Amino acid sequence: MKAKLIDERGQKTFALIFDKGDEFIDGLTSFARENELGGSHFTAIGAFRDVMLGYFDRETKKYKEIPIVEQVEVLSLVGDIALKDNIPQVHAHVVLGKVDGTAHGGHVLEAHVWPTLEVVLTESPKHLNRKIDPETGLALIEVVP
């Protein structure tokens, strides 16, 4: 992955270009740790060669894994980075387009880029924190007044 800081007026804006074979979640998490990010949002377009989507099952309180093992277009990828126990945590959702024009979407658990993924990430001066929600077991962003 290549990264470039493209704006630094109040907020930092980065362009991240993932290369063939890069794993998106691991790569973005590493970038977030290296740059001490904790209040970011991002969007992306590009393509994946394979993806593991997740759909949160309220009954089991776990993600049902949905593998997609084929070339897909990333039609829309959005997410945020917030701190959980002072460690950056990536939360991303995606809509994917298949060759026949159908779309699939969900929470991104793992995804391998092919041939590129273009991410624009904005980091705010203030960080966000995640706290475990006892009802769901999920680490949700906590907004403190």
What report would you give on this structure?
- It is a single chain.
- Strand 6 (87-97) and strand 7 form a beta hairpin.
- Strands 1, 2, 3, 4, 5, 6 and 7 form a 7-stranded antiparallel beta sheet that branches. A two-stranded antiparallel sheet has the order 8-9.
- The protein is flat, with a radius of gyration of 15 Å.
- The protein has a single domain (2-142), classed as 60s Ribosomal Protein L30, Chain: A.
- The longest helix is centred in the N-terminal third of the chain and has 11 residues, at 24-34.
- It is mainly β.
- It is 8% helix and 63% strand.
- It contains 1 helix and 9 strands, in the order E-E-H-E-E-E-E-E-E-E.
- The N and C termini lie far apart (37 Å).
Question: Could you give the count of β-strands?
Answer: 9
- Topology order in helix (H) and strand (E) letters: EEHEEEEEEE
- Rg calculated over all Cα atoms: 15 Å
Main sheet makeup: 7 strands, antiparallel
List the helices and strands and how they pair.
Blueprint lengths: L1 E6 L4 E7 L5 H11 L4 E19 L4 E7 L3 E13 L2 E11 L5 E21 L5 E4 L6 E4 L3
Antiparallel strand pairs: 1-2, 2-7, 3-4, 3-5, 3-7, 5-6, 6-7, 8-9
